[in-house]
């Protein structure tokens, strides 16, 4: 496993060791499986949630949305509990069951069953509503991709546009993020990209090339494509106050406890590192890719790190070591040894037993 250290506003990438080299026909615009460059595009998983939250907070700034209003005010009859507010959804305190728990109970079969499927938002929400809610609205943090599917529905209802159009007009174009795309439901990553490999649950089983997929199970919760450089630009702009008003950025950073040394705001995660520094951003796991994207409080220092494999506990833990290295000056290798095992919340099942849920 290779780790490239990060400097101010630079990027870091972690590479899968075991990927079998594809044929020349399969490579197309991708790069060799043992090298990843900052220019390579990849699926960013739940880092998409930060983009979705920014769009909704801009709508708050425009007076078109109220954070403490019930979701059903804007989407009548969608949710069975009228107490669930927009704020509850964005902070994972709605109690809505995460449909991916069932969808990916078995990692590879679950993925293959949805690799080329195209879901509507309503279909995904209905999968959640078929199961009991996990908590009372507004009580405790309980991560659920369902929340940000609802966020996508809110964006489209309030603007009359697709989430693709809103991401483009409000974030991608103003920040000149030339390598950031919402390609759903297309299966290919446009241009130059890194191939992604899914690790099966069975030890020693061959990796599964998961590069081509609709990511329709994720949509506004996790279907964006980007690069490490674009993610650094995005987080620096967000935390530097260039995407929302100061008031809405403060709302985004109203924290609730979300696990060991972590808190969650509105689509934004805070991690408290061993050196006393806190960083702000999100992690993302989608089949074949695992992303860390974090920045300092003022956005002056940013790190985006990619592993082109998923469902791999050792890689997840190493990524936390990279974060320690970038912001605390510690060896990534040492950080990986001392960090607790990480569990991805994007793909809720299929990670090593006992791993922490992020």
Short description:
The protein has 358 residues and is of the alpha+beta class. It is built from 13 helices and 14 strands.
Question: How would you portray this structure in words?
Answer:
This protein is α+β, with helices and mostly antiparallel strands. 32% of the residues lie in helices and 13% in strands. The protein contains 13 helices and 14 strands. The protein has helices spanning 24-27, 48-61, 71-74, 86-90, 100-103, 107-114, 121-129, 145-159, 163-172, 228-239, 246-252, 313-328, 332-338, and strands at residues 12-14, 42-43, 197-198, 208-209, 225-226, 256-257, 262-264, 269-272, 278-286, 289-295, 302-307, 309-310, 342-343, 356-357. The strands form four sheets. The protein has a seven-stranded mixed β-sheet with strand order 1-11-10-9-8-7-6, sandwiched between helices. A hairpin with a 6-residue loop joins β10 and β11.
Return the structural class.
alpha+beta
Going across the major beta sheet, what is the strand order? Answer: 1-11-10-9-8-7-6
The major beta sheet can be summarized as: 7 strands, mixed
Oligomer: single chain
Beta-strand percentage range: 5-15%
Radius of gyration over C-alpha positions, nearest whole angstrom? 19 Å
Average per-residue pLDDT, rounded, comes to: 87
Residue share in helix: 25-40%
DSSP E strands, number: 14
Sequence of secondary-structure elements: EHEHHHHHHHHEEEHHEEEEEEEHHEE
Distance between the termini: 22 Å
Count every helix, treating DSSP H or I runs of 4 or more residues as helices: 13
State the shape.
Answer: globular
